[in-house]
């Protein structure tokens, strides 16, 4: 049961989409098709225009060879402001510069540019760190990619539900409480809670090997927790959760991220029994060495899903099953995404398959959105002790380097610290988002923070540069008296790049690939830089010309901040 296709009216016609709609509407009746069935592509060679329709698919229907069909259509078609031509089996379309500038420069830069009314209910579960441990650099990807996807869905008119599935349940919390009872220090918990808890946990783990009573204590403590009583153990665990959350929140604040629901694994605790009973009633459970499993060979998965241990405790997968079911009951979502590293692929395959075996038709709406690892460029990011670097340390270092760069480039700048925070954090996020999600990412400081090349700071700089020119102009662009013909040719490349952003937004959301928006923004940035390098804006003799260029710059600036905003990245006014 997949979501129904979107009604055509839900697709906006901003930017180049406006012309795409004209093209498909004109071509469709000539080949007896619905406009929505025509998939326009992007010609491989730029000089062939902005859109292309491969004619292979339709030639059979008309009894012609594809090149003949393309040629015939090119002759027959008349579309306002669009010129059609045939190249082999392709029907290519080139948009007239003036009309394009007119449409694109009016649409782009609006806050709702490329937005839609898709109306789906989309859950995005992301970040989900484990409490009592630092958020490390590996949590960056889920956090940044998940938040970006949520923003893109939001822009497309989804009802978005952001969930943080904190790892806050399991036998390890018995250990932690037992360790706290032995060696816990109020003072250390107050100064650096996560560091203290991590040390307690590690120490317990080590000493457990020598002293088996520790293992017993931990088990007892977890039982106390699982009893659901409001006892001392539970109070301690709640405190650990809250202290951890305070630390996580600092990172979320820097990323500008919020959640609709902070629901850790423990939140589903009272739903586990019901879940297990449901699995039994569906007849999918079996006993295996005292444990309860669900066999998945019928689903082509060799490893069964363990849902209850021989000791009667539940597992990560049990809680995920309960969570999925509870979310379906509560939200009736159209899609529910789990933005979690590729190393957990089997886990998701397994629990999705369990739900399918239970006949839950909504299981097809669940989707694991995996991503590759972050690899740190050797040596530079690991501490001497070889410890994993925390996310906070990464951000601090990025900001420190950004500050140094600002000191060097613009020593007079008033609010350097604030700007460095925006650049450093933004650079880190952009670096994460500009790569294909499934690929591993190598994190190299020099590259991440460079003000040139395919980086966040480069785009932020372009934004700031436009702002500075606009401020110098001393007056806002006058859009009522904008003559697009004055800038049509010189801004053509930029308008194409700006005009393609709506499509990039849709594609990024469909493919769960924020990189598509990041790359579209880089093209806008590159074309924008060429534009203001080659076209002086201020001090022109012709005020109409100056105004037209101001419109271009203002649109460029607004689109950059809107587009980067979709990725969660802020822009400093000066840098
Ligand atoms: N807490 C887990 C971890 O840090 C990630 C949770 C992913 N989400 C889920 N529904 N299993 O590895």
What is shown here, in short?
With 575 residues, this protein is of the alpha/beta class. Helices cover 51% and strands 10% of the residues. The chain starts with 16 loop residues before the first helix and ends in a 9-residue tail after the last helix.
Structure description:
- The structure is a single chain.
- This protein folds into three domains: 8-95, Gyrase A, domain 2 (2-Layer Sandwich); 126-269 and 318-375, HUPs (Rossmann fold, 3-Layer(aba) Sandwich); 391-566, Isoleucyl-tRNA Synthetase, Domain 1, CATH 1.10.730.10.
- The chain is flat.
- Residues 379-383 have low confidence and may be disordered.
- By secondary structure, the chain is an alpha/beta fold.
- The chain contains 21 helices and 13 strands.
- Helix content is 51%, strand content 10%.
- It starts with 16 loop residues before the first helix and ends in a 9-residue tail after the last helix.
- It has a five-stranded parallel sheet with strand order 6-5-4-10-11. Strands 1-3-2 form a three-stranded antiparallel sheet.
- Helix 14 (391-409) packs across helix 15 (416-433) and helix 17 (456-473) crosses helix 20.
- Bound molecules: arginine (ARG).
- Arginine (ARG) binds next to loops.
- Arginine binds next to loops.
Topology:
Elements (H helix, E strand, L loop, with lengths): L16 H11 L23 E4 L1 H7 L3 H11 L5 E6 L2 E6 L1 H11 L13 E5 L13 H17 L3 E6 L7 H12 L2 H6 L1 H18 L2 H14 L5 H24 L5 E2 L9 H10 L3 E4 L2 E4 L10 E4 L7 H16 L3 E5 L5 H13 L8 E4 L4 E3 L14 H19 L6 H18 L7 E3 L1 H5 L6 H18 L18 H8 L1 H10 L4 H20 L8 H24 L9
Parallel strand pairs: 4-5, 4-10, 5-6, 10-11, 12-13
Antiparallel strand pairs: 1-3, 2-3, 7-8, 8-9
The structure holds arginine.
Arginine (ARG) binds next to loops.
């Amino acid at each position: 049961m997949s979501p129904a296709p979107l009604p055509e009216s839900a697709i906006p016609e901003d930017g180049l989409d406006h012309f795409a709609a004209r093209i498909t509407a004109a071509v469709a009746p000539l080949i007896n098709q619905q406009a929505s069935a025509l998939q326009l592509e992007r010609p491989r060679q730029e000089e062939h225009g902005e859109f292309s329709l491969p004619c292979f698919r339709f030639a059979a229907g008309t009894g012609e060879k594809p090149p003949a069909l393309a040629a015939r259509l090119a002759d027959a078609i008349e579309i306002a402001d669009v010129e059609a031509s045939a190249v082999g089996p392709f029907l290519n379309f080139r948009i007239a510069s003036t009309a394009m500038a007119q449409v694109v420069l009016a649409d782009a830069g609006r806050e709702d540019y490329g937005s839609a009314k898709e109306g789906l209910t989309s859950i995005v579960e992301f970040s989900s760190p484990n409490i009592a441990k630092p958020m490390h650099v590996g949590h960056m990807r889920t956090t940044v990619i998940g938040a970006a996807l949520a923003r893109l869905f939001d822009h497309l008119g989804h009802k978005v539900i952001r969930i943080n599935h904190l790892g806050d349940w399991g036998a390890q919390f018995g250990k932690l409480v037992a360790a706290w009872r032995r060696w816990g220090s109020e003072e250390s918990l107050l100064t650096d809670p996560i560091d203290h808890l991590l040390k307690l946990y590690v120490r317990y783990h080590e000493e457990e090997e020598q002293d088996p009573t520790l293992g017993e204590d931990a088990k007892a403590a977890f039982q106390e927790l699982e009893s659901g009583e409001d006892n001392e153990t539970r109070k301690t665990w709640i405190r650990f959760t809250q202290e951890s959350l305070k630390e996580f929140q600092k990172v979320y604040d820097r990323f500008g991220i919020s959640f609709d629901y902070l629901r850790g694994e423990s939140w589903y605790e009272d739903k586990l029994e019901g879940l297990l009973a449901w699995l039994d009633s569906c007849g999918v459970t079996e006993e295996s060495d005292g444990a309860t499993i669900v066999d998945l060979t019928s689903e082509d998965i060799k490893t069964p899903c363990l849902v209850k241990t021989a000791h009667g405790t539940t597992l990560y997968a049990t809680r995920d099953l309960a969570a999925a079911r509870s979310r379906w009951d509560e939200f009736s979502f159209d899609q529910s995404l789990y933005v979690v590293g590729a190393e957990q692929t089997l886990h998701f395959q397994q629990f999705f398959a369990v739900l399918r075996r239970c006949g839950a038709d909504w299981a097809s709406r669940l989707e694991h959105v995996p991503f590759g690892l972050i690899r740190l460029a050797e040596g530079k990011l690991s501490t001497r002790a070889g410890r994993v670097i925390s996310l906070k340390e990464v951000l601090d270092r990025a900001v420190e380097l950004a500050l140094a760069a600002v000191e060097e480039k613009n020593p007079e700048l008033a609010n350097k610290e604030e700007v460095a925070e925006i650049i450093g954090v933004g650079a880190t996020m952009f670096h994460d988002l500009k790569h294909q999600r499934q690929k591993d990412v190598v994190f190299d400081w020099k590259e991440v923070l460079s003000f040139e090349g395919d980086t966040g700071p480069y785009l932020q700089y372009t934004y700031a540069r436009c702002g500075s020119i606009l401020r110098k102009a001393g007056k806002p662009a006058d859009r009522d008296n904008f003559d697009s013909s004055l800038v049509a040719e010189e801004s053509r490349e930029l308008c194409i790049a700006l005009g393609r952003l709506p499509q990039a937004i849709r594609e990024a959301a469909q493919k769960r690939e924020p990189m598509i928006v990041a790359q579209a923004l880089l093209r806008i940035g590159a074309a924008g830089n060429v534009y203001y390098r080659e076209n002086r804006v201020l001090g022109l003799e012709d005020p109409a010309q100056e105004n037209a260029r101001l419109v271009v710059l203002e649109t460029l600036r607004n689109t950059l901040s809107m587009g980067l905003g979709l990725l969660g990245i802020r822009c400093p006014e000066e840098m």
